[in-house]
Specification:
Blueprint: H1 5-20, E1 33-36, E2 49-52, H2 62-65, E3 71-77, E4 83-92, E5 95-98, E6 109-115
Antiparallel strand pairs: 1-2, 3-4, 3-6, 4-5
C-alpha cells in the first residue's frame, strides 16, 4: 500500500487540477453585433439579419436580440476596389431586405455596410 502512495497522490493531484481548473476565472460579457447574410452566386441578394450577442449562460434567440433601426447596403466592387453599384436594404419584420433585384455574380467582390444607431 505504501509503495502505491506516490502514484495515488499524483492521480489525486491531477484530478483536483481538472476539477478546479476553471474556478476563479471571471467571464467578461462583451456586447457585440451579429450580422448574418450569405451571398451565393447566381441567386438573389440575401436577407440580412442583425442582432446582438448575449450572456454565456443565456441561449441565443434572434427574436429577443434583434437590432432595429439600422441602415444596410451591399456594394458591388470593381476590380480596382471602387464601388461599382450599391444595393440598398430596407427593414421589414425584423430583417433587412434588398430594395431591388440583383443576381449575385460569381467571382465578384461584394462589401456589406451596416450603420447601427
Amino acid at each position: 500500500m505504501l509503495k502505491r502512495l506516490p502514484e495515488m497522490l499524483l492521480v489525486a493531484l491531477i484530478a483536483m487540477t481538472f476539477v478546479s481548473g476553471c474556478d476563479g476565472l471571471e467571464v467578461q460579457d462583451i456586447d457585440e453585433f451579429v450580422v448574418e447574410a450569405y451571398l451565393i452566386a447566381n441567386t438573389q441578394l440575401p436577407v440580412v439579419r442583425l442582432s446582438r450577442t448575449t450572456d454565456l449562460d443565456t441561449p441565443y434567440n434572434f427574436t429577443n436580440l434583434v437590432v432595429n433601426g439600422a441602415s444596410a447596403r451591399i456594394d458591388l466592387l470593381s476590380p480596382d476596389g471602387s464601388v461599382e453599384t450599391s444595393f440598398l436594404y430596407e427593414e421589414r419584420d425584423n430583417l433587412y431586405w434588398p430594395v431591388g433585384n440583383h443576381m449575385v455574380m460569381p467571382a465578384r467582390t461584394y462589401k456589406l455596410h451596416v450603420d447601427i444607431p
